[in-house]
Amino acid sequence: MNVTRGFTGRPSMDGPGLPPGQYDAGDAWPVLSAEVTPGIAPADWTFRVDGLVAEPGTWDWEQVGRLPQSEYAGDIHCVTGWSRFGTRFSGVSLDVFLDAVRPDAAATHAVAYAHTGYTANLPLADLTGGRAWIALAHDGEPLPAEHGGPARLLVPHLYFWKSAKWIAGLRILDHDEPGFWEQNGYHARGNPWQEQRYSGD
Amino acid sequence: MTETFVPPTRFAVPGRIAVAGQAAAAWQTATVAEIRRETPRAATFRLAVPAWAGHLPGQHLQLRLTAADGYTAQRHYSIASAPDASGHIEVTLDHVEGGEVSGWFHTAARPGDRVEVRGPVSGFFAWPGDRPALLIGAGSGVVPLMSMVRHHRRRRLTVPLRLLVSARSPRELIYAQEFGAETTPVFTRSAPPGTPVGRLAAAHLAPLTAEPPADGWEAYVCGSNAFAEHASRLLVAAGQPVDRIRIERFG
Hints:
Strand content of chain A: 25-35%
CATH class of the largest domain in chain B: Alpha Beta
InterPro entries (chain A): OxRdtase_Mopterin-bd_dom (IPR000572), OxRdtase_Mopterin-bd_sf (IPR036374)
Protein name (chain A): Sulfite oxidase-like oxidoreductase
Largest sheet of chain B: 6 strands, antiparallel
Oligomer: heterodimer
CATH superfamily of the largest domain in chain B: Nucleotide-binding domain of ferredoxin-NADP reductase (FNR) module
Number of strands of chain B: 11
Low-confidence stretches of chain B: none
Domain Oxidoreductase molybdopterin-binding (chain A): 37-181
Organism (chain A): Streptomyces tropicalis
Helix content of chain B: 10-25%
Low-confidence stretches of chain A: none
Distance between the termini of chain B: 38 Å
Radius of gyration of chain A: 17 Å
Structural class of chain A: mainly beta
Region (Disordered) (chain A): 1-21
C-alpha cells in the first residue's frame, strides 16, 4: 500500500453501494458528452434494431410509447468517478425490442449507436434479462437533451458511457467491435464492480 | 456477419490517436516536486514520474490518494504540461469545495509527498500538433488547452493555434503571465480598464471562423457543462462542422 501522507479522505463515502474507486455525487448529475448536444424532436427520433436478427425493426416515438413501459430505480456509475444513487428512469425494456427482432443463435454482441454517430459496444447478455432499457423519462419528466433526450440507452449495471445518449439503434453482431470510448482506450465491458475502466483493467 | 459496423451518421468525433492500453493500466508513484500558486483558487503541482510513458497535449491522467486505513480516492485530471523528456508532469487543480482530492492537494501537499498516477488516458481530446487548433476554455478548462499552447511554442510549430479563454476576472485567469498573441482572454465579471466585461460571444469567434485556415479548424472546448454547451452552440452557429468539435466537460 502506498499511503499518502496526511490524507484521510471521507470513509463515510465508501459505502456498500459504491463500486470501488467511485464517490457519491449527491444530487449532481454531471454531463460529459464529447460531442455537441443535438436538438432532436421526438417526432424526428427513431430507434432501429438490425444486424444478425430474423426481422429488423424500426420504431418511431409514438410506437415506442405504445410498448409496455417499465421502470429502473437504482444507481448509475460514471467512469470518471461519480456515482448517483436512487435514480429513477422509465422507458421500454430492451427485451421487448429484441423479442420482436429475434437475434440469431450466433449473435453475441451489439453496437449501440446514437443519432450523433457516437457508438458503444456491449455483450448481448448485458442487454437482456430486464437489465437494459430505452429510457424516455427521468424522475417522471422527459429526458433533457443534454442527458440524451428524447431517448437514451440505459444499462445501469455498466459504466454509464455504455448508456448511449440520443440512441438511434442497435446493430446485433457475432463479434465484439469497439465503440467510441473503447477505441480511445476504455474497457470493452466496463463493469464498475470490477473497476473495468480502461483496456487492461 | 463479419463486416465492420459503420454508424449511419457521420462519426461525431473520431479519436485523434491510437492509445496504448497497457501504459494506462499501471499505477506509478508520483512525487510532488514543486507547487506554484496560479490564482486564489488554483495551483499547479509539478510531479516527478520517472517512468512516465509520455503523453500528447489534451490527454488526462488518473490520480489516486491512499489513506493509512486503506481508503483510496481517485480523480481524473487534465495534464497541463507539454510533453517533454523531463520525467515530470504538471497538473493544475482548482480547490473544489469539499473536494477530498483537490482539498488534500491545496491544504496538505508539500514537496516530497507521494501520490499515485496512471495514464495518459484517452486519445479523444488529444492534439498531436498537426492540424490548426481553435481552443476555447473557461476556468480550469484552460488546463488541457495550455498543454497544447505550450507544445505549440516549445516545438515552434507553424500550424495556426488560437486560444479563447474565459475567466471571471484577471486575478482568476490561470496562466495569465504565460499567454501571448495567440490568446484572447474574455472576462465575465471584471476586466482591466478598456477591456469589455461579458460572456464569450459570437463576436469573439467571428474573426477566427470567418477566415479559417485552409484545412479548417479543429475545435477543442473545455469547461463546465454550461460553458461547453454555450461555446459549442456558438461554434456551430459560426459554421464550424460538428464533427470537428471536441468537448471535454467537468464532472
